[in-house]
Amino acid sequence: MTTRDVPDPIRRDDPIVSPSPVEQLLAKRLADVEVVMRRILGMPIPTKKSRPNCYADSSFADEIALADMPQKFTIPNMKPYDGTTDPDDHIASYKQRMFTGSEAIECISLDISKIKEINLKCNAFLKMQNLRFLDFYCLNKLSRRVLWGMDEENVNKVHALQGLEFSSCNISFFRWFGYPLDSLPSNFELENLFALIMPWSKIKQLWNGLQHLEKLKHINPIHSKHLIRIPDLSLAPNLESLILESCTSLIEVHSSIQYLNKLVILNLKGCKSLNSLPINIQSKFLRYLILSGCSNLKKAPKITCNMENVYFDGTSITELPLIEYPSRLRCLDLENCSRLEILPSDICELKILCSLKLKGCSKLHNLPQQLGKLKSLCSLSLSGYRGQDPKVGSKWSLLSYLSFLYDLDLSDCKIMRLLDTLGKVYFLRILNLSGNNFEWMPSSFKKLKLKYLDISYCERLKCSPLGASTAETYNCISLELWDFYLSSSVRANFGKCLKLDQKLKANLGESLYGLPGAFLYPGNKIPEWFSFQNVGSTITLEVPPLSHCELFSVIEVCLVVTSQDHEKAPQSLVFHYKVIGIDENESFVSGGRLGWISLLVGILQCGGVFELIVDGQAS
Fold first, then answer.
1. CATH top-level class for 378-484?
2. Whole-angstrom Cα distance, residue 330 to residue 41?
3. 497 contacts: CB under 8 Å, gap ≥ 6
4. Are 527 and 491 in contact (CB under 8 A)?
5. Rounded Cα–Cα distance for residues 156 and 176 (Å)
6. Is there a common fold for 204-362 and 378-484?
7. Residue-wise over 359-376: b if at least 16 C-beta within 10 A, else e?
């Protein structure tokens, strides 16, 4: 059978097989594309491929060729180069048609992380009458984690030394990382603006006077350290988010924000020059009120019944503002409110409060007696609290009523004795008792199933019956007994625990065999059960190929770290390891004056050469 004799799998003239609805839709799409292609003068009609939904000679990918054209899109009239004219003239003609037709441009989007610098002329946007979308962004900087590591030098790449002029265009989306001017252009139309986003800009004031901003929903000039004030927003009734984080020069937010009835997020974190805000913000939709680090703010707005997350940490408030009930508040952060002296008793009526942070409230001397009524509380931080001593008072016993408590921080509270009641908080998984003065831990604590335990700098503690997946016991200089099976842990730091029972060290090898993690223990020599030993900062050994049943074997590494100045010995050590021909990684483990660490390096499926390099980077 010849190629010509091969039957078509779907014959359109076959009475038995009819086109499916999908095929009919594709055929219609193709016909529409043909019409569009005919509108381009000088463009040959593309020939169909064997597949009915593709074109052989189309300059577009299949997905683009099948897409609908924008309603206002006009294809430029360009002739293909035929070799009969000067190629330079043809290129010049092409440029003229592409760049002088700016009145048709509706969208400009540029990832400025991929460029060095651009200097815009004053009239760069002047003829773009249809411009709707202007976006100068950093694609690799958009995640919240990366944003905080950025600075102005990384984003200020698009310059406008002579200022900017805009036509009477109606831009709806304006995002410009590192906006270079101290104000928006005087002829910039704001009426159709939906979002104004200008991280790390040099702007001082957004606009002057009262502007009609009925479509505006988002304002976000974070890290604009030159921004001084927020103008009147009375005519922006649909604003949903006002994010002014780290605008460190901001001294005034117009009182009109209290009447923004659709506001959901008000974020003023790090606005350290701000000293006042409207007391009554009336928005029924406000869920997030973030005033963290507003160190000059002495009076905070009322907590309305619809707020869910309130952050007053780092402010100078002396008392908690009025709370409306019934409340939807889930998170209340008062950390490092160093002037806060008292909590109102009605805070115990917050039925669905999940997180309460009071760390660093150094002037807070009494907790509400009904604190145990916060039945939904999952996270409580009282670090640095100097209330009544648990030997004579009943404040700490209230914690036993918090049956759903998951995370508890009682560090640096000068606790002399722990009560058995803490052992009854059965859902507790994270416990920080560091920096306290107790000598013993109640046996009831054995019932707790902790993931994280921190008893560092408990210098009088002699015995711990408590273990966790991660245990920090650094500088427990009186600790003699760790009455817990270490194999339940994947990380433990016994740095500077010089009185710890030596039997623990003797049994450590058997306990930790095959266990991934990092462990530190005081000592001055490497145990004998480590086969390869070397003096110096590196060690290299060849690992044979592993059988299928040995794939989950681990390499245990022991380091002895010494310091000339024992008082300034590091708590941590950074080192690199690599398996030559397989991978290269960096790991972080706890360290100390004297210690040794067991570390899971990786699964060596093919064998290789393992090399450990200690860099000496310590902290």
1. alpha beta
2. 64
3. 473, 474, 475, 476, 477, 479, 521, 522
4. no
5. 10
6. yes
7. bbbeebeebbeebbbbee
Residue given tokens 């265009």 in the structure block: 169
Q: How many CB atoms lie within 10 A of CB 151?
A: 9
Whether the ω angle into residue 326 lies within 30 degrees of 0, i.e. cis, is yes
- Cα angle 13, 19, 25 (rounded to 5 degrees) comes to 135
Give the three-state DSSP class for 484: coil
Residues 6 or more apart whose CB falls under 8 angstroms from that of 178 comprise 112, 136, 152, 155, 156, 157, 158, 199, 200, 201, 202
Distance CA 372, CA 300 (A): 26
Residue with tokens 């049956």: 403
* Helix, strand, coil content of the chain in percent (nearest 5): 15, 20, 65
Residue pair 132/103 in contact (Cβ under 8 Å)? The answer is no
Q: For 112-127, how does the pLDDT look when each residue is reduced to its tens digit (9 = 90+)?
A: 888 888 888 888 888 8
* Sequence-ordered list of residues with C-beta below 8 angstroms from that of 372, at least 6 positions apart, any chain: 398, 399, 400, 401, 402
H helix or E strand, kind and range, residue 36: helix 21-38
Helix (H, G, I), strand (E, B) or coil at 331: strand
CB contact at 8 A, 436 and 412? yes
Amino acid identity, position 4: R
Number of CB atoms found within 10 A of residue 487's CB: 16
Ordered by start, the domain boundaries in the chain are 3-65, 103-174, 204-362, 378-484, 538-618
115 to 98, 111, 147, 156: CA distances (angstroms): 21, 8, 18, 11
Phi, psi (deg, nearest 5) at residue 186? -60, -30
HSE-CB of 101 using CA atoms within 13 angstroms = 13
pLDDT tens for each residue of 228-276: 999 999 999 999 999 999 999 999 999 999 999 999 999 999 999 999 9
d(Cα 84, Cα 81) in Å, to the nearest integer?
Answer: 8
Give dist(CA 474, CA 454) in Å, integer: 9
Lowest-confidence pick of 308-317, 407-416, 423-432, 528-537: 528-537
pLDDT tens digit string along 328-340? 999 999 999 999 9
Place of tokens 């910039």: 188
Q: What are phi and psi of 176, to 5 degrees?
A: -145, 100
CATH 2.60.200 fits 204-362, yes or no: no
Residue length of the chain: 619
- pTM for the full model? 0.75
Rounded to 5 degrees, what are φ and ψ at 586? -130, 140
Rounded Cα distance between 184 and 207, Å, is 7
Query: Residue written as tokens 């019934």?
Result: 326
* pLDDT tens digit sequence for 400-432: 788 899 999 999 998 888 888 788 888 999 999
Instruction: Give whole-number Cα distances, 55 to 7, 40, 44, 48, 453, in Å.
Output: 22, 16, 12, 5, 65
Q: Calculate the dihedral angle through the C-alpha atoms of 172, 173, 178, 183, rounding to the nearest 10 degrees.
A: 20
Pairing label, strands 538-543, 608-618: antiparallel
Structure tokens at 563: 């310091």
Q: How far apart, in Å, are the Cα atoms of 158 and each of 89, 105, 135, 178, 460?
A: 31, 19, 12, 7, 59
